[in-house]
Amino acid sequence: LRKTVETILSFKTVHVHLDLIAGLPYEDYESFANSFNDVYSMKPQQLQLGFLKVLKGSYMHEMTGTYGISYLSKPPYEVLYTNWLSYEEVVKLKRIEEMVEIYYNSNQFTHTLAVREKEFETPFEMYEDLARFYEERGYFVKTPSRMYRYDVLLEFVMTKVSQEKEQLYKELLIFDIYLRENVKSRPNFASFLANNKENVRTFYEKEVENSKYLSGYEQFDAKQMARMTHLERFTYPVWNIKYEDIIKPLNEERYVLFDYKERNPLNYEAKYTGNITLA
């Protein structure tokens, strides 16, 4: 399965959606966590955590007594517990499922999560800890809005990492935000990275005169190009892929240019150019 998924992902044109089912016979909480980590490591665009549904007339329905399966008597007929998985563990997995849906399947936190999961032994432990954090702060009762989830994730991160890494994670979150959309209202934690307006204006004026980074904007002036794209200052190389490179601060600030006219069709991320120096 891993080899097949890797082959499909290598095409870079196919949206990969992998499913896991909790509550199957002989699988306990620990073995499900192992399955999660195995599938997560394949990096599908979507990782769906489902729960066993016991339908009347099915083999699983006939074996409920043998497997100790208790399930909802009304749709969706989902498992409540089994001989191997307790009700409390099913509830925990439900909460983890929501975290995976919000933070992984949304594809809105790709770079932040890639760094954050390195702070844990396994990815499952990270989502397990995030679900515990949500429960403690009451976020399951009142789910944060889409943009506020960036603040919540930063809040979660800072409960576990040193203050020295706070700026790194702020920049990762800023990068993830602009990777998806050209927001006009910056989050509160992004205020410390305000751009030099004069340098930005000069950059776009040079692009109008002699395009180096942007193509297809010939009919637009500098102000229009600035509104349609986004230039962001960073002190960490958050555009890098390797974890070891991202966590080392730069000797001098660099900029990333986000081009929203060109997007990845699989995850809708904007095309970006990193490591830009502004004179």
Set down the secondary structure blueprint.
Layout: H1 2-10, E1 17-22, H2 29-40, E2 46-51, H3 59-62, H4 64-67, E3 70-71, E4 79-81, H5 87-104, H6 110-116, H7 123-137, H8 148-157, H9 166-180, H10 197-209, H11 222-228, E5 229-234, H12 243-246, E6 254-263, E7 270-276
Parallel strand pairs: 1-2
Antiparallel strand pairs: 3-4, 5-6, 6-7
Question: What would your notes on this structure say?
Answer:
This protein has 279 residues and is of the alpha+beta class. The protein has twelve helices and seven strands. The chain has a three-stranded antiparallel β-sheet. Helix 6 (110-116) runs antiparallel to helix 9 and helix 10 (197-209) packs across helix 11. The longest helix is centred in the middle third of the chain and has 18 residues, at 87-104. The model has no long low-confidence stretch (mean pLDDT 92).
